[in-house]
């Protein structure tokens, strides 16, 4: 099995809320090929961010199995980079120092660390901002820095949890294009969780549509539109409408399921 592959088999996750069990995920099965870009969409509460955290190794108590490159995921790993909705940069450190934190446990010397930090600042378009502090960055620039920090130790898999959700529409659209470029350059496996259906079809090789109560995969749609993509492409618009119809059908079915 290639080192960038993710295999999810029969994964279920239950939380306890007010002393009662709440099933967040129910028997999820998914295979992600090395170098593939998967996007996951669904309503709030469908368990998509929980699933991402489980792949990252941050949620360890669950049934079923998650494997990365054939090895069970038992905790966080340098082989899986994670980007959250907020950049989570340390304000007292420069941008370069924040990136260097991603190499803290890597087996590289000081010169290599400096080179890797510089390379990844250039990769995300922040080549001249290594000595800046997070407060001096725009929201989009800060999120670029967060992506660079997740990539600096050359992980096999990049996990993104609503990375552009807090940004304005123009910045978001620009960074979606930048993420496509970075993914293509790094040849990395990527899994993106988003509420934005347009973003999901623009970026994904496949779109995983999740249904809630409990969280499960309702449908997986292939996106065969060639890259680089234009969000105005009629095929992307058709796929977006298909995903929206699926989400509407799930929403309409939910009250009936709860009543039964």
From TrEMBL:
Signal sequence range: none
Family statement: Belongs to the ABC transporter superfamily.
Protein name as catalogued: Sulfonate ABC transporter ATP-binding protein
GO molecular function (one): ATP hydrolysis activity
Top-level taxonomic group: Bacteria
PROSITE patterns in alphabetical order: ABC_TRANSPORTER_1, ABC_TRANSPORTER_2
Domain ABC transporter per the UniProt entry, residue ranges: 6-237
Classification via Pfam families: ABC_tran
UniProtKB keywords: ATP-binding, Nucleotide-binding, Transport
InterPro entries the record matches: AAA+_ATPase, ABC_transporter-like_ATP-bd, ABC_transporter-like_CS, ABC_transporter_ATP-bind, P-loop_NTPase
């Amino acid at each position: 099995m290639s080192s960038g592959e993710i295999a999810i088999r029969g994964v279920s996750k239950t939380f306890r809320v007010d002393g009662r069990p709440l099933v967040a995920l129910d028997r999820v099965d998914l295979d992600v090929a090395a170098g593939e870009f998967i996007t996951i969409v669904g309503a709030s509460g469908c368990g998509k961010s929980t699933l991402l955290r489980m792949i990252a190794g941050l949620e360890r108590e669950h049934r079923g199995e998650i494997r990365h490159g054939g090895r069970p995921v038992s905790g966080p790993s340098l082989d899986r980079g994670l980007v959250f909705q907020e950049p989570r940069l340390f304000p007292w450190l420069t941008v370069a120092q924040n990136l260097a934190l991603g190499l803290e446990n890597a087996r590289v010397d000081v010169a290599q660390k400096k080179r890797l930090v510089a390379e990844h600042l250039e990769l995300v378009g922040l080549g001249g901002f290594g000595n800046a502090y997070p407060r001096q960055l725009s929201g989009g620039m800060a999120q670029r820095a967060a992506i660079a920090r997740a990539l600096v130790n050359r992980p096999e898999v990049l996990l993104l949890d609503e990375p552009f959700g807090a940004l304005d529409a123009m910045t978001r659209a620009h960074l979606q294009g930048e993420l496509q470029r970075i993914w293509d350059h790094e040849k990395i496996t990527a899994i993106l969780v988003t509420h934005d259906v347009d973003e999901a079809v623009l970026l994904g090789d496949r779109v995983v549509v999740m249904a809630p109560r409990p969280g499960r995969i309702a449908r997986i749609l292939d996106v065969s539109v060639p890259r680089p993509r234009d969000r105005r492409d009629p095929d992307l618009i058709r796929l977006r409408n298909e995903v929206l119809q699926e989400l509407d059908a799930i929403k309409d079915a939910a009250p009936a399921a709860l009543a039964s």
